């Protein structure tokens, strides 16, 4: 994504698998009163983001999350002269409902939350604005977001019966699929479970999500191949990443150091 001129108002937009993402910067008035038939879920990145919602003026600061309920009128404007920058996710209620499993849609009082669960779940979905999001990664993020919204809305936690056999099958299937794109639908079909039940199963028994587990196993393989002398381009292709930059971003985020630097620093045990 190219850097934008902060002196002008701008909007960047991407769409993947029915989920729309935008990043935007505005001085003054951004939007007149309007409404969506989707959830509008966002994070304020800089400045003060002000909007009329439920007959009151709301002010979102960096680190806050916005969760506007479907079909609720709202506008948008800068709360200070320096303008505001934000990222927003528009997601159909049915997408979250699939993950929630038939309960009432979560409602966040006031449209703004300071709960870190909401912020982290939404930030993970909004990190990549280039549309290069793997299907399993997006499904994983949607599940986390739905769970966070359900928890933050104040509902009583619900228990579910977890299927260890299905989770174990999913784990084995992931190990056999490290070098290619894997979807949650494919994984669920292989294990004989519906997609969201399998996600819950996997988290219950292995402590992480299917996509996170897949990513970590890919990185394990990548490190082995790197120490064997394979080039970073070759390693990325052999471990199922979209390209070298995709692998580098995840490697750096996970280990706090870029793969090329890690490779220069790592020493074999004698």
Automatic annotation (TrEMBL):
Taking every annotated instance into account, which residue ranges of this chain make up the domain HTH araC/xylS-type? Answer: 168-265
Question: Is Chloroplast among this UniProt entry's keywords?
Answer: no
The superkingdom listed in its UniProt entry is: Bacteria
Q: Which UniProt keywords apply?
A: DNA-binding, Transcription, Transcription regulation
Query: What Gene3D superfamilies does this protein's entry cite?
Result: Homeodomain-like
Say if the entry is tagged with keyword DNA-binding. yes
Q: Which PANTHER family match?
A: HTH-TYPE TRANSCRIPTIONAL ACTIVATOR RHAS-RELATED (PTHR46796), TRANSCRIPTIONAL REGULATORY PROTEIN (PTHR46796:SF2)
Name the record gives this protein: AraC family transcriptional regulator
């Amino acid at each position: 994504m190219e850097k934008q001129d902060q002196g002008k108002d701008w909007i960047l937009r991407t769409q993947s698998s029915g989920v729309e993402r935008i990043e935007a910067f505005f001085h003054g008035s951004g939007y007149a009163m309007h409404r969506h038939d989707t959830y509008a879920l966002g994070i304020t990145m800089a400045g003060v983001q002000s909007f009329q919602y439920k007959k009151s003026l709301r002010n979102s600061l960096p680190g806050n999350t916005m969760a506007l309920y479907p079909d609720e009128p709202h506008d948008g404007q800068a709360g200070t002269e320096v303008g505001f920058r934000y990222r927003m996710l528009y997601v159909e209620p049915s997408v979250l409902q699939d993950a929630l499993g038939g309960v009432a849609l979560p409602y966040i009082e006031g449209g703004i939350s300071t709960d870190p669960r909401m912020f982290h779940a939404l930030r993970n979905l909004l990190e990549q604005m280039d549309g290069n999001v793997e299907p399993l990664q997006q499904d994983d993020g949607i599940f986390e977001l739905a769970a966070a919204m359900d928890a933050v809305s104040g509902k009583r936690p619900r228990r579910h019966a977890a299927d260890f056999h299905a989770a174990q099958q999913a784990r084995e299937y992931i190990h056999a699929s490290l070098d290619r794109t894997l979807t949650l639908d494919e994984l669920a079909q292989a294990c004989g479970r519906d997609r969201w039940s399998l996600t819950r199963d996997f988290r219950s028994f292995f402590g992480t999500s299917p996509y996170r587990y897949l990513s970590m196993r890919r990185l394990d393989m990548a490190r082995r191949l790197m120490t064997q002398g394979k080039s970073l381009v070759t390693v990325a292709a052999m471990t199922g990443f979209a390209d070298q930059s995709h692998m580098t971003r995840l490697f750096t985020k996970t280990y706090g150091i870029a793969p090329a630097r890690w490779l220069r620093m790592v020493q074999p045990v004698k």
